[in-house]
Design goal:
This protein is mostly helical. It is built from seven helices and six strands, in the order αββββαααβααβα. The relative contact order is 0.19.
């Protein structure tokens, strides 16, 4: 049941992004209900709903396609387009960010079941981010759509981890 709930939450996230172009960007437990009789996940509280710009949706589609294809240059190009990497970033910082992106993609997109509860990806990303900050890296300002989407992705990840879910994540993303 927990796996099914997390799968449905991720499917909803992907539909919000790629099909609806509108996302409820406050992913906490209070904003969802699960109906055991039907197996449906119900989304509540549309106060944090945001229409997404077409170019942002397209950039995330390119980011996901590059990740699924193992195309690191494509990942970097999509991250630049989204404002996550900007010209003028110190080469060492750029290399660290590329390594973080590659690590996240390799971890999340392994074939088979992804065990959110057993994942140490959030800890590794936090440690790598702290190293960047200690080295003087200041993140660039990014578009609001990107911030809201990153919040949603992180929140859904944490919900799935709290549920102890195991999800065929790559298969969902390939759809």
């Amino acid at each position: 049941v927990r796996d099914r709930i997390a799968t449905r939450l991720i499917e909803l996230l992907l539909r919000e992004l790629f099909e609806f172009g509108v996302m409820q960007s406050d992913p906490n437990f209070a904003n969802y209900r699960y109906d055991p009789a039907t197996g449906r996940v119900v989304l509540l509280d549309f106060g944090a709903t945001r229409a997404l710009a077409d170019d942002t949706v397209a950039a995330y589609r390119r980011l996901m396609a590059a990740g699924l294809a193992g195309d690191n240059a494509g990942l970097e190009a999509a991250a630049e387009e989204m404002g996550l990497l900007q010209p003028g970033i110190a080469p060492a910082h750029r290399a660290q960010i590329r390594a973080m992106m590659s690590d996240a993609v390799a971890t999340l997109l392994k074939p088979g079941v992804y065990d959110f509860a057993a994942s140490d990806l959030p800890r590794r990303m936090q440690e790598d981010g702290m190293k960047l900050a200690e080295d003087g890296f200041v993140p660039p300002p990014v578009p609001m759509d990107v911030l809201y989407l990153q919040r949603k992705f992180g929140g859904i990840f944490l919900l799935a981890a709290r549920l102890g879910a195991r999800v065929q994540l790559r298969a969902l993303l390939e759809k």
